[in-house]
Amino acid sequence: MNIGRALVPLTAVAGLVALTACSTAGASGDDGRLKVTASFYPMQFLAEEIGGGHVDVTELTKPGTEPHDLELTPRQTGALGESDVVVYLKGLQPAVDDAIAQSGVKNTVDAAALTPLEDHGTEVDGHHHTTGDNHTGHEDDEDAGADPHIWLDPVRYAKVAEGVGKALAKADPDHAATYEKNTAALVKKLDALDTDFRDGLKNRTSDTFITTHAAFGYVAERYGLVEEAINGINPESEPSAARVRTLHQLAEDKGVSTVFFETLASDRTAATLAGDLGLKTAVLDPIEGITDKSKGRDYFEVQHSNLEALRAALGAK
């Protein structure tokens, strides 16, 4: 079952629009396009989908690089300072935050200011809270910290999309109507993705899933799931012996079938835990970048791959 197929043609159409639409009015690049710098893939995707042919987007984080580890070259820092608009997520990449603070760029969009970040630890139980934007939805533990992965929740990502659309329209008023139209189309697709997740996860036999990296707390909250992460927010940290014992017990008690790992971080910890417990391993992608290993060519395709992986792990029919 592939719930996402209906959305693929829309993506293709958006790509064609981006290739064919071009204008020289109201923008400052050499070719007349608005110069946008995006800190990493989820911000780049929004800028390209909303800006279409009127924007020239530069991504600071190369595909395949862990965004948390980014260091900027002097050239990147200089280019950032010449941008018309910068789209980023404050707190995720300290090097980017510092460069923006020094750049003097007027039009900056901080995704974290458009939908509040929450503190998530190694457990996020989506049953204990509503799915509004002002709840906490976390269990206290020593690894808790501000969780930046808001783009994995389609509802929160739609709010960020609206903020990016407004910033592009402010920086390039001549094309404001196009940016508004493209934003509305993207929000509609994100609403449909939210519906796909709700419908796709309805008839499940388990709520609990185990991941190596605590990236899916907002997804757990939105859809009433329980994320149990081997590590906290930092994908490179090692779990304590007590945490591993807890996960062994949880897997047994909650009927967990699968340990998820991701494409940009090591799968060693997941493989070890799964081996010890006789569980399967599978990929759940935090969509921090698109590479040849990604299960899809863009945000929507990878999100539908994630949905299918969750459905299989949770026994959804």
CATH superfamily assignment of the largest domain? Nitrogenase molybdenum iron protein domain
In DSSP terms, counting alpha (H) and pi (I) runs of 4 or more, how many helices? 11
Structural class per helix/strand content?
alpha/beta
Total strands: the figure is 11
Strand order within the widest beta sheet: 6-9-8-10-11
Order of helices and strands: HEHEHEHEHEEEHHEHEHEHEH
**Do you know the CATH topology of the largest domain?**
Rossmann fold
- Beta percentage is 5-15%
| CATH class descriptor of the largest domain | Alpha Beta
Rg, Å, rounded: 20 Å
CATH architecture of the largest domain: 3-Layer(aba) Sandwich
Mean pLDDT over all positions: 85
Secondary structure layout plus pairing:
Layout: H1 8-20, E1 34-38, H2 41-51, E2 55-59, H3 74-81, E3 85-88, H4 94-103, E4 107-110, H5 111-114, E5 118-120, E6 123-125, E7 145-147, H6 154-171, H7 176-200, E8 208-211, H8 217-223, E9 226-229, H9 241-254, E10 258-261, H10 268-277, E11 280-283, H11 299-314
Parallel strand pairs: 1-2, 1-3, 3-4, 8-9, 8-10, 10-11
Antiparallel strand pairs: 5-7, 6-9
Helix pairs in contact: 2-6, 2-7, 3-4, 6-7, 7-11
